[in-house]
Amino acid sequence: xxxxxxxxxxxxxxxxxxxxxxxxxxxxxxxxxxxxxxxxxxxxxxxxxxxxxxxxxxxxxxxxxxxxxxxxxxxxxxxxxxxxxxxxxxxxxxxxxxxxxxxxxxxxxxxxxxxxxxxxxxxxxxxxxxxxxxxxxxxx
Length: 140
Known about the structure:
This protein is mainly alpha-helical. It is 44% helix and 0% strand. It is elongated.
């Protein structure tokens, strides 16, 4: 005789750390040690309007691109879904469990628009490893 089915009662509060769920030997941990995107916002400042609703953080979009390149995710739509679902990807992209991954159309508009116009990706990949992108690195 089986007992009654137990209904899970959701906890009121959770203690959860994404970092605790990303193995120490994960590829993204190794990459994260060398990726410094601290100056990316100032590098792209001229490519953003100062009015309207806030844009998606360009560091998030670049981190998502790196995830896509490293794990062979060629579809932007699929990349957005994978970042939404995968804890290691969320950790690398600095997204909390409650944060939303950007919509694939926003992701595409940035990649094909301001990132291309600013030559940001060329700058990122031609830069010295460990060199932060700063305001003086924009060709001035």
